[in-house]
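Internal tracking record. Fields below are filled automatically when a chain is submitted to the structure queue. Please do not edit lines marked as system-generated. If the sequence contains nonstandard residues, flag them in the REMARKS field before resubmitting.
Queue: standard
Priority: normal
Entity type: single polypeptide chain
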Amino acid sequence: MRLVTFESSPGLPRAGALAPDGRVVDLNLAYTVYLRDVDKEPAFARVAAARVPAEMRALFEGGDRSLNAARQALAFALEQGESLRGPAGEQIIHAPQAVKLRAPIQPKKFFHTAGNFREHHEEAQKAGFSHPVLPWIVFFQNIDAIIGPDDAIVYPEHITSELDYELELAVVLKKAGKFFGKEEAADYIGGYVIFNDVTARDIQREEMKSGIFSFCKAIDTFCPLGPWIVTADEIPEPHNLNMELRVNGKLRQRSHTGKMSVTIPEILAHYSPMGYAPGDVLSTGTVSGVAAFSDDPQSLYLRPGDVIECEIERIGILRNRVVSWSETHPGAPPPRKA
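SYSTEM-GENERATED OUTPUT FOLLOWS
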C-alpha cells in the first residue's frame, strides 16, 4: 500500500491509501462500511475507529492488525467503486485533484542518521569539514519542522545564505521495541518514505566545531517528508533502490541504497536502546552530490524559486519549492540575528 495523509477539507487530515490510478481512499470510512455491510458488525463505527483509525500514527500503533485491516478496506473500496459512501453519506474515494496531500505521518520521535554512505563522508573530507561524517552519528529531528509534498521550504535569508539539500530513505516503525538485534529488526519495519534533509551549511560548520549539529537541520520547514509511506511488503529489498535528487530538473544527487555502510537492520538494532514507538521515523543518511561538497557550492546552493524533486525507486517523488522568508511574512521585517 501507499499510505497518505490527505485533506478533502482544510484542517481535517485523514489517513488514506492510493489507488493504482492515483485516487485517494479514506481508509477509516471504507473499513466502517465494510464492517457494516460485509461483516454485519453492529458496532461498526467503534470497531473501525479502533482497527483503522483516521490518523496515520494511530494506524501504525495498531501494527500488523491495523495495516492488514487497511488493506482490506482499500480492496473493498476499489471493488465497490465511486458510488461507495460513508455511513453519513461521506465521500470515500477522492479524485487526486480534489485533495491536498500532507506529510504522511507526524511521528512521536524522528531518529536522524548521518554519515551512513561512505561517498558522503569522502566528499565531506575533500571539502574540509571539521569532523568525519561516519556512522554512527544520530540525533533527533525537530518533528515540528516536518512538511509534506508540494509544501514550501521557507528560506530564512536572515540567518543563512547556504541552503542545501540531502536526499534520504527513511523507515517508519510499526511497533514499539527496545534492545533488539539486527535479526529481529525486520519485524519492526512498517514502511518506507522519502526524506529531504534540508541543511543550513554555514550554521552547520559552526556547530560542527564542537562535533555536534542539529539546529542547522531543524529549522522550520527543513524536514520535507513524503509523498506517501510505501508499506514494507511492497519493498522486500530496501537495499536495492535507485536514488536521485534534481533541482529545477537538473541532476544533483544520484546513488543507490546498496551503498549504505551499515544496513537498515543494523541501524535499527543499534539505536534500539533509546526505544521505539509505533509510527516513529528513522532516516538512513544521504548520498554524494550535495552542494556544499561540490567544486562550486555557491552556484548550487538553493535559492527562492527552486523546485527540488527527491526520487527513490518504488516509492515515488517528493517535490517541494523554496520560497523566501519575506514571501511568507509579507510586510514583516526579518528578525535580527542573535
